[in-house]
Fold this protein.
Amino acid sequence: MCDTCGCDDTKTIKEKKTVEVNQSLLRANKEEAAGNRKHFNEKGILAINLISSPGSGKTTLLEKTIEALRNDISIAVLEGDIETELDAERIREKGAPAVQLTTGGACHLDSSLVHKGFHKLNEQLNGKKLDILFIENVGNLVCPSFFDLGEHIRVVLISVPEGHDKPIKYPKAIITSQVLIISKSDLLQYFDFDIIKIKKDALALNPNLEIMVTSATSGEGMEEWFEFLKKNMKKQGSRIPGFEGPSEKQI
Ligand SMILES: Nc1nc2c(ncn2[C@@H]2O[C@H](COP(=O)(O)OP(=O)(O)OP(=O)(O)O)[C@@H](O)[C@H]2O)c(=O)[nH]1
Ligand SMILES: [Mg+2]
Ligand SMILES: [Zn+2]
Ligand SMILES: [Zn+2]
């Protein structure tokens, strides 16, 4: 994690204290995340945390998802950004409720912000049942990996222009996720991007990872993504045992 998260691995006493503070910060985050997950479970909501570098296509994926599923599935979004309401506005234009969570500088969402955002969202929903809550994290492939938000499923996006070496450079994002979306596949023809290698590297880090290759532009892989959402929404609806989100070990 970076200094914004207060974490540093160097060796002075002052800095060791920083590490201790951070461990307690992560513990507190974990406890509030468990509270969030309880909230989601009580209401039968499937919560999905989207993480990626800036611009990998998180909001675009959500826009396409809402467009395709809005008649069948009730979707809302908590939009994490350092500044601005821009992404929440994009989601609202597609007809889904959205609450913008601005971190004011921090490079990741934490479970306390999500908790507050969820209650704010509930006020807007006015008792309307929600099926899926997407939490779009701040664009950053490092720090969000360390923070459980209470989600059931973590999805990491890596877009074609970023390069196929990202899993081995940012392993924590891969290890703590259940799904890898290789996005912007329509750009494969323009980039030296090795799909076989990225899949092999990602699976070596996390053999249970589900991998999808998608393009919001061409529509490739979108049906598979929608089917994945529907399947897991049903699992959450019928409370399949073991559906408790990322394990202690993972995060
Ligand atoms: N070619 C192509 N471009 C895409 C695709 N998906 C998204 N984009 C473009 O990529 C840019 C960034 O997309 P966003 O959806 O805003 O990315 P994001 O991950 O939400 O970005 P942050 O919230 O800033 O982290 C936009 O210009 C999109 O139009 C895709 O499948 N193919
Ligand atoms: Mg976005
Ligand atoms: Zn950070
Ligand atoms: Zn609460």
In short: The first helix runs from residue 13 to 42. The pocket of zinc ion (ligand 4) is lined by residues 39, 115, 119 (CB under 6 Å). The chain has a mean pLDDT of 91. The CA atoms of residues 10 and 177 lie 28 Å apart.
